[in-house]
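Hey team,

Filing this mostly as a record. A colleague (T.K.) asked me to run one chain through the structure pipeline before their review meeting, and I want the input and output archived in the tracker in case anyone asks later how it was produced. No errors, nothing strange. Just documentation.

Input sequence:
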Amino acid sequence: MPEQMNQSIGYQNNGSMHIKDLEEKQNLLKDRILLIGQNLVDFKEENSEKILEMKKEFEKMKQDIDRIKSFVEIISREFDRFARKEDLEILSKQAKMFQPLDFVKKSDLKKIRNDD
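Output structure:
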């Protein structure tokens, strides 16, 4: 009988050691899961901040692009109002042919001669 008691005490010790090992493993897993959860929360917060910052930059870029578009539209409308080189050459030739200053001088000279 004492031998059986020793044997049952040995099984109990083995069983309680096995339970303690399982409890320790469970505690380690629990700590790891808590760390992983905390890392996940930190990662999410960090990424949320980065995404928010990127959204702000994207909106600013969209506004800049809209301003550039409107500027280009205004400039393209103004280009139609500019004279072409050929048009300027024609106007220059017409001005040389007409020469308003010479016309005024000649007509003034004629008036002066007629008045005399």
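Quick notes for T.K.: The longest helix spans residues 2-79. The chain has three helices and no strands.
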